[in-house]
Specification:
By secondary structure, the protein is an alpha+beta fold. Helices cover 32% and strands 22% of the residues. β8 and β9 form a beta hairpin. The relative contact order is 0.20. The structure holds flavin-adenine dinucleotide.
Length: 441
């Protein structure tokens, strides 16, 4: 299994970060005129299956406006993205601030794409396979070797200078390598990085949330455009609180806010806004749903009073039902009236308006935990970034060993940012691994 003396870079995992690392390594070796092998060891029967599943099969592979502050471990990611940019400037001899280096990487592979809402980038062919096709074609052309059905179980670092890494596989085979890139994703085995590297157990996030079911059961499969705030007992605020929510949060502190679509399910809530909040949610936290985001909180009562007056022309009695008809779907209106303690058919008095405004602007749901882990898009946790060099992804205590992508404790909201990180960290690690092979370390 590749135990000859030829310099070898072993990439463990043939997903997004692994393929980017392998291509970047092979390109750097070719540019330096160094003869070395780049081998991708993939546990699955084929490389890139994880890429095919992204973006509902369309692969939202990046974002037009990537900023480090959307990521967990912002400073580390910021340094990594800045380094990638510096490398691009150094290679071209000019500072191309306008060109994102990850986008340039894909343009060089031949991928065309288009921008959709909120800067999301999708391949022009609208199929994830189009992203994988260009990656595999260039990898083949650069003589990257794919070894599939090879699950790495342990990596032993060289015990003295001049020795090589020993990569052990589930079937008992062992491969030797001069540099290793661990790109095994969010559930990467801890043993792939030598002991002592700080690590936290990954937990699935960026998925649906389970909440109290009494309310949501009645709303199953209903979608609403709204704003949602997450309030909890602990946790740092990641945005500014806005609106009515403060009064409704019962002593909790503000954590995060999202605008977009929420899909009610019989177990809780789903949709992109909820996925993004799930990165910060803990059991016991409160979701406060603003069902009327177009009306500022301070104006909501006035808005409802005016509406009540308008609908009550010619002495007509206005019920809660009347007031919400044409504003919300009937099932949602029912839930709001119940939350406000009002009966649908009872006349709505002036005195009822403040409670109705609160229920509309801060409809509460208690979080019970994450929903189905299979729907979660990333894992939070893994290898702590403090143990790695942000410019190379090399482990501080283990020269030649790199960890990239989701295996590191980096995650971001929906929008192409997670894949962007996978490519960016993979490219940095691949280039550095090539330098190690070149230097004969
Ligand atoms: C359903 C879904 C949709 C998503 N959609 C998007 C999206 O549109 N945009 C976006 O930015 N992000 C999206 N993500 C997140 C994105 O897919 C990940 O952030 C990204 O794939 C992480 O890249 P990675 O290379 O670190 O891990 P992965 O892509 O998961 O690759 C890891 C690879 O390593 C292999 N492997 C694991 N263990 C071993 C081992 N021991 N030995 C050898 N190989 C091993 C795995 O089989 C896999 O091929 C989505 C995720 C999911 C689940």
């Amino acid at each position: 299994m590749g135990n000859d003396a030829k310099k070898t870079i072993a990439v463990l995992g043939g997903g997004a970060a692994g393929l980017a690392a392998a291509i970047a390594a092979a390109e750097a070796l070719r540019a330096a005129g160094v003869s070395a092998r780049v081998v991708v060891y993939e546990a699955d029967e084929r490389v890139g299956r994880s890429i095919l599943a992204t973006g509902n099969g369309r692969c939202n592979f990046s974002n037009a406006h990537v900023e480090a502050d959307v990521y967990r471990n912002t400073a580390f990611v910021g340094d990594a993205l800045a380094e990638l940019r510096c490398q691009a400037c150094a290679a071209d001899g000019v500072c191309q601030l306008a060109d994102d280096p990850v986008h340039a990487f894909f343009a060089d592979l031949g991928l065309l794409w288009r921008e959709e809402s909120e800067g999301r980038l999708y391949p022009l062919a609208n199929k994830a396979s189009s992203v994988l096709d260009v990656l595999r074609a260039v990898a083949r052309e650069r003589s990257v070797i794919e070894e599939c059905a090879c699950a790495a179980v342990r990596v032993d670092a060289p015990s003295k200078p001049g020795e090589r890494f020993h990569v052990r596989f589930a079937d008992g085979r062992v491969a030797h390598a001069d540099a290793v890139v661990v790109a095994a994703g969010g559930r990467a085995a801890r043993e792939l990085v030598p002991a002592g590297t700080p690590y936290s157990e990954p937990r699935p996030v960026l998925g649906p949330l389970c909440t109290d079911t009494a309310v949501v059961k009645q709303l199953n499969n209903i979608r609403v455009r709204c704003a949602v705030e997450l309030w909890g007992k602990s946790g740092e605020a990641v945005a500014d609180a806005a609106g009515f929510a403060e009064h409704a949060a019962g002593g909790r502190s503000f954590k995060a806010r999202e605008e977009g679509e929420v899909l009610f399910r019989d177990y809780g809530v789903s949709g992109i806004a909820v996925f993004n909040l799930s990165r910060f949610a803990e059991p016991g936290d409160l979701l406060l749903i603003d069902l009327l985001p177009a009306v500022p909180a301070a104006e909501c009562e006035g808005f409802l009073h005016t509406r009540r007056k308008r609908l009550g022309v010619a002495g007509r009695t206005v019920t809660g039902d009347d007031l919400l008809r044409g504003m919300l779907l009937p099932a949602v209106a029912q839930a709001v009236l119940k939350e406000a303690g009002l009966r649908e058919s009872a006349p709505l008095t002036k005195a009822n308006v403040p409670e109705l405004a609160r229920a509309l602007k801060a409809f509460p749901l208690v979080v019970r935990g994450m929903g189905d882990a299979r729907q979660c898009q990333v894992s939070r946790g893994g290898f702590a970034v403090e143990a790695f060099d942000a410019c190379t992804m090399e482990a501080q205590g283990v020269p030649g060993l790199h960890v990239v992508g989701e295996a590191l404790d980096v995650d971001a909201p929906c929008g192409g940012y997670n894949l962007h990180w996978a490519w960016a960290s993979g490219i940095l690690a691949g280039r550095h691994a090539a330098r190690i092979a070149e230097a004969g370390r």
